[in-house]
Amino acid sequence: DLAQVRKSQLQRADLLRKQLDHDSITALDRDGKGVDKLEFVIGMLIVLGCEVCGEPLCWEDVRPFLVKFESLDVTRTGRIDKRDLELMVQRSQTRVDGRDTQKVEL
């Protein structure tokens, strides 16, 4: 309903304007090494009440996507770039040709 949409928009705007304090920021730190970009963004989405498949977003929802990203980032650059995609195609082709049983899933 329109009232709920407006409430959500105001909540989002308020969170973006709000000055975060020390405790709020350190609560986002998952590994004790300081808050990185991913921790900050996911943490803010959790605070906003984002949902995945009708359930509140939590780190357990994010973890499988991180694992998938790591498996696709063959070159370990922190990005899935052209070289990673080329390697993925090569692995897939090798598997199809029967020379290798390593599986690449999308």
Could you characterize the architecture of this molecule?
With 106 residues, the chain is mainly alpha-helical. The protein folds into two domains: 2-58, no CATH class; 73-106. It has helices at 2-17, 22-26, 37-48, 59-72, 82-97; strands spanning 51-52, 55-56. The chain has a two-stranded antiparallel sheet with strand order 1-2. Strand 1 and strand 2 (55-56) form a beta hairpin. The longest helix is centred in the N-terminal third of the chain and has 16 residues, at 2-17. It is elongated and about 55 Å long. It starts with a helix and ends in a 9-residue tail after the last helix. 0% of the residues are buried. The model has no long low-confidence stretch (mean pLDDT 87).
Short summary:
The chain is mainly alpha-helical and 106 residues long. It is built from five helices and two strands, in the order H-H-H-E-E-H-H. It has two domains: 2-58, no CATH class; 73-106.
SSE blueprint and pairings:
Elements: H1 2-17, H2 22-26, H3 37-48, E1 51-52, E2 55-56, H4 59-72, H5 82-97
User: Distance N terminus to C terminus?
Assistant: 36 Å
* Helix percent band: 55-70%
Structural class: mainly alpha
Rg, alpha carbons: 19 Å
DSSP strand tally: 2
Q: What number of structural domains do the residues give? A: 2
Sequence of strands across the biggest β-sheet:
1-2
Give a quick account of the main beta sheet: strands, pairing sense, barrel closure. Answer: 2 strands, antiparallel
Shape: elongated
- What proportion strand? under 5%
Mean pLDDT: 87
Uncertain stretches: none
- SSE run: HHHEEHH
Helical segment count: 5
